[in-house]
Amino acid sequence: MPLVVFCGLPYSGKSRRAEELRVALAAEGRAVYVVDDAAVLGAEDPAVYGDSAREKALRGALRASVERRLSRHDVVILDSLNYIKGFRYELYCLARAARTPLCLVYCVRPGGPIAGPQVAGANENPGRNVSVSWRPRAEEDGRAQAAGSSVLRELHTADSVVNGSAQADVPKELEREESGAAESPALVTPDSEKSAKHGSGAFYSPELLEALTLRFEAPDSRNRWDRPLFTLVGLEEPLPLAGIRSALFENRAPPPHQSTQSQPLASGSFLHQLDQVTSQVLAGLMEAQKSAVPGGLLTLPGTTEHLRFTRPLTMAELSRLRRQFISYTKMHPNNENLPQLANMFLQYLSQSLH
Fold first, then answer.
1. Is 90 exceeded by the pLDDT of residue 268?
2. CA 209/CA 143 separation, integer angstroms
3. Among its keywords, does the record have Zinc-finger (predicted)?
4. How far is Cα 113 from Cα 213, in angstroms, rounded to an integer?
5. Which CATH number describes the domain made up of 1-112+202-261?
6. Can you give the pTM of this predicted structure?
7. Which residues contact 21 (CB under 8 A, 6 or more apart)?
8. Is 292's pLDDT higher than 50?
9. Cβ 199 vs Cβ 94: under 8 Å
10. Which segments of the chain belong to CATH 3.40.50.300?
């Protein structure tokens, strides 16, 4: 049965959407398997995406797990970042080899794929996107905005060093401001991100989020391995179950490459019989056209097909067509076609001459 690939950055709601799709398909009586990072690693570990070697091993384990589960009877849901288009192409090849359809579900955070945690007060200027690498910037009045208690402590320490005073000389009012800032950090998490974090259970550092954003290769429906593509923005948008069902259960599987298909078994005398049958057809055709009239039908012994006689045919022309027919038939040998070789050759001559 089909393969469903989820794609998106962390905190975009992939796991919740995957669970929603699993419940909907299981309610229809279908066998559904979910493959995710936790199932492969034993526990979700965001630090894997900070190490290229471990991440490569993770992708290999995910691909192997999908390949084991993929069949014509079960639905497999891959819940992972899947942000590399080369890896998505490998999954497409797995589905094509298994002769089963697939679709891609792209989950995007409401602020866009590159939007990070919003800063307190950012709602006053909704047109401004704040990156995850946000750092405090001095305002016009000279006061610095703090991103957390750690930044405030660094600023206070630097001020103490400049003034030659110790940390104990900091006024109590400043300490109270620092403690208040620690209790209410400036980084505010949107509701969609909170719900996504709740479903994920893993914490991605801002540096890792920014690195994943830079490495992310967004799906493109113009690529055959990225379609059919369903894009979901936020958790408020309903899951397009009807479209996903149509893509999975009504579409045809990707056609396999001819070079990867095993050749049908053929007997050792196939080429000898092919050469003998085509030679007999040419001999009978040269003999039949001696008494034929233009516009008549030529009937050859051992065939049920007829060839319309329009002009005299030379042996050189017929031999050239015979070599072309033999070259094509050798690429697709099949013992089942042996009784029909004469008719097939006569049809080929009729289409090539008229």
1. no
2. 28
3. no
4. 7
5. 3.40.50.300
6. 0.54
7. 4, 77, 105, 239, 241, 244
8. yes
9. no
10. 1-112+202-261
